[in-house]
TrEMBL record:
<keyword id="KW-0963">Cytoplasm</keyword>
<comment type="subunit">
    <text>Homodimer.</text>
</comment>
<keyword id="KW-0663">Pyridoxal phosphate</keyword>
<dbReference type="InterPro" id="IPR017652">
    <property type="entry name" value="Ac/SucOrn_transaminase_bac"/>
</dbReference>
<dbReference type="Pfam" id="PF00202">
    <property type="entry name" value="Aminotran_3"/>
</dbReference>
<dbReference type="GO" id="GO:0003992">
    <property type="term" value="F:N2-acetyl-L-ornithine:2-oxoglutarate 5-aminotransferase activity"/>
</dbReference>
<keyword id="KW-0808">Transferase</keyword>
<comment type="pathway">
    <text>Amino-acid biosynthesis; L-arginine biosynthesis; N(2)-acetyl-L-ornithine from L-glutamate: step 4/4.</text>
</comment>
<dbReference type="InterPro" id="IPR050103">
    <property type="entry name" value="Class-III_PLP-dep_AT"/>
</dbReference>
<dbReference type="GO" id="GO:0006526">
    <property type="term" value="P:L-arginine biosynthetic process"/>
</dbReference>
<feature type="binding site">
    <location>
        <position position="279"/>
    </location>
    <ligand>
        <name>pyridoxal 5'-phosphate</name>
    </ligand>
</feature>
<feature type="binding site">
    <location>
        <position position="139"/>
    </location>
    <ligand>
        <name>N(2)-acetyl-L-ornithine</name>
    </ligand>
</feature>
<protein>
    <recommendedName>
        <fullName>Acetylornithine aminotransferase</fullName>
        <ecNumber>2.6.1.11</ecNumber>
    </recommendedName>
</protein>
<comment type="similarity">
    <text>Belongs to the class-III pyridoxal-phosphate-dependent aminotransferase family. ArgD subfamily.</text>
</comment>
<dbReference type="InterPro" id="IPR004636">
    <property type="entry name" value="AcOrn/SuccOrn_fam"/>
</dbReference>
<feature type="binding site">
    <location>
        <begin position="103"/>
        <end position="104"/>
    </location>
    <ligand>
        <name>pyridoxal 5'-phosphate</name>
    </ligand>
</feature>
<dbReference type="GO" id="GO:0030170">
    <property type="term" value="F:pyridoxal phosphate binding"/>
</dbReference>
Amino acid sequence: MQVTRDTFNDVMVPNYNPADMVPVRGEGSRVWDQHDNEFIDFAGGIAVNVLGHCHPALTQALISQGNKLWHLSNVFTNEPALRLAKKLTDATFADKVYFANSGAEANEAALKLARRFALEMHGTQRSEIIAFKQGFHGRTFFTVTVGGQPAYSDGFGPKPGDILHCEFGNLDMLASMMSDKTCAIMMEPLQGEGGIIVPDPAFVKGVRELCDKHHALLIFDEVQSGMGRTGKLFEYMNLGVRPDILTTAKSLGGGFPIGAMLTTAAIAEHLKPGTHGSTYGGNPLACAVAEAVFDVVNTPQVLDGVAHKEALFREHLNRINAKYHVFEEIRGKGMLLGCALNEQYKGRAKDFMVAATNEGLMCLVAGMNVVRFAPSLVIPDKDIIEGLEKFERGIAGLVAQPVALTK
C-alpha cells in the first residue's frame, strides 16, 4: 500500500500537523524520507532517540528478546524488567521501580503515589499538589492539569482539584503557598516544553528544604532531562538535591515506549497490590531495549562526552548569532539546548524550525520563542557541525525574507 503525507489528512485524527516529508529510515543521526532526501536529526524524537536511530546494541536487544518472550500480564514478572529495575536502583537514590509505557503514565503513577502516601501518613486534609507555571508533565487529565500551561488543559471540563501553580524560580512565592495541606511539589529540574529553562541550583535546594519543612514529597519529572541528557544519568545528580520520587521515560527506551517511576522503599509501600497498574508496564520487549540503552548510556565514555558536544553546539551557535543576531540567549544543558529568539523574532520559533527542515535539519520548538535541540548523546561531531551549517542556511534565508513562513 502506498501512503503519503496526504494519507495522514484522510485517516488520522487532526491533533497533530506533521511535516510534509515522511521519514522512512534512519541510521545514527541521519534520517531519509520517502524520496531519499537526507536529514540530520537534532530533534531525537523529542529527546527520545538518545543513541540515535537503529543503534546496533538496541536493535540486537530487540531481536534477541523478540525471539524469546513478548508479553506477560502482571500476574507474572519477567527477567528484563527485573534486571532493568536492579540497574536503575543501583545507580540512583531509589529502592523501588514502577514501570509504565510513557512519561505521562510514570507521572500519573507518581502523583497517585504521593496522594496515597499523604492520605495514609497525614490524613485527608493533605492533598494539595504544587507545580510550576510553564511546566509540562504529560497529557493525561491529571498530569496536564498539574502541568502549568492552561492552553493544554482548558476545554475538557472540570479539572482535578487541589492543584496550585507557582512561578518557576520564585522561592518566596512557593514558601507562601506551602502549608500543612501540601502533599507534594512536582517540578522539572530543567523545564523542557516551557522553554528550556535551567533553574538556579539554590532555588532547587530551597524547594527541597521547604518540602522537608512541611513534610511534603518532592517529585522530579526527569522524563526529558534524564538518562544522560545533561551529562549525568539524571539531572538531580548535577544539582545535589535528592527527590523522593523521580520519573523518567523518553530516552529510557531509546525509541521503544517505556516509562518508569523511581522511589524509596518507605514511600513505595503505599502502592499496595491493586492500588495501581498497567497492562503493558514492564513489558519484556520494552525492558530489554531499555536495559541495552542503560548499559550504553551509563558509561564514562558517553556521559563525559556530553559536555564536549554541548561546547561544540554553543561555539557554532554563538558564531551564527554573531552574524545574524537572532537569539537572545542559548539556554539549556548538555544535549538539551534552546535558542531563545530575541525581540525582533519573538513568536517565530516554528518559522526557524520549518526553515531548518527545508535545509535538511530536523529540530524542535519549545513554545513560540525557543528553537530546541535534543539530539543523540553520541551524535558525531561532524554531524553537529554539518547540521548547524544547515541551520545557518535556514536562518540566512529567513533573515533575508522576514515574512513568516508559517503564515
